[in-house]
Amino acid sequence: MIDQVVINHKIHKYNSAKNVKKKLDYFRNLSEQGLHNLTEQEFNKLKAEFVKFQNVIFTFFADTYPTKLFRVTNNKFLYDGQKVKLEKVTDLVGPPIGKSNHGRCNLKGESVFYAALDFNTAIWETRPEVGDLITVSEWEIKPGEKLNTHYIFHPTLTEVNKDSSDAYIAWLESKKEINPELIEVFDELILFLTEQYMKKVSDNEKQNYLFSANYSSRLIQQKPDRNGFKIDAVCYPSVRMEYGLTNLAIFNDCVFDKLQLNKITVYDIVHTNYDTKNVWADDLIKVSPMIITTDNFDFEHNKIIYDLEAELKLAIELHDKYDHS
Fold it and tell me: Which of 198, 200, 211, 296 has the fewest Cβ atoms within 10 Å of its own Cβ atom?
């Protein structure tokens, strides 16, 4: 089988679509068998083989201006598992470099800020458990800033959501500018990559994110080009929401430059209803009435500022209410 998509970059010589598909089918078969079954040596060898093969990077990007972004931070993963409120603004973004496992859009150790375009999708993607204390942060793009975003879409399933459909339309337009001999090659690559982004992966088998994580890493972890341009984020359909709504994986280092933190809300989970037969349910979680919120942040000193007086007042009101019920 072939080793690389592009034979010679200088003269734009590519392998045939037939040969590219054959190699992709080889990766596809391994993916279907489960990459978590590979030894560490086999996994690293496959990773290197895929990097060598995928020697062409293409993007379908847009300047993105979502009204809101929602991110769920599960407090138990910080402060040694203590059930306490977050203290630092930086607790609200991606994990420090070296602390992450494989994710859909990051290789092991890479720091990525994952967010959703609505509250329910953010909950579905993180699925907090009963007893968890979670912090939901709400963000938006700063005025005058833009988020250069690569869109994931499926060439034959464009109806999965509006973002994917729009990306597909953009691809159809871009085909007019591409050498006709290469269109089929890119179709095969896009199909394979999107399959990997839409792949269902168990929480304890995150090695299966390898192909999408590798491509995302090469998009958003790279330095700006000589013109100062870089891709900041990858936009992909939410697997746990049956592809109907959208997630964003954002280069963690650009979050505070590009995004504005509006407020956070702290919830204590008392009941969950993750019914996969009805992903659009409004009662995914039930929470304690002791809900804490703040929009006060000291960015200079990296502090989240809570209104302790308001919290005490709410605690007294709830105590009186339930003590007399």
Answer: 200
**Are the C-beta atoms of residues 195 and 183 closer than 8 Å to each other?**
no
The residue with greater pLDDT, 10 or 136, is: 136
- Residue 127 located in a structural domain: yes
Q: Is residue 13 part of a domain?
A: no
Number of domains present in the structure of the chain:
1
Query: 251 is in which domain, residue-wise?
Result: 59-289
Is position 41 within any domain? no
Q: State pTM to two decimals.
A: 0.88
Closest among 7, 12, 20 to 188, alpha carbons compared: 20
Distance CA 258, CA 196 (A): 28
| Residue 54, domain member (yes or no) | no
Which tokens sit at 296? 């006060």
Residue-wise pLDDT tens digits, 181-238? 899 999 999 999 989 998 889 888 999 999 999 999 999 998 888 888 899 999 888 7
Task: Using alpha carbons, list the distances in angstroms from residue 44 to 4, 107, 221.
Answer: 18, 12, 19
| Distance between CA atoms of residues 131 and 128, nearest Å | 9
In the numeric block, which tokens belong to residue 123? 């909950």
pLDDT in tens, 136-147: 999 999 998 988
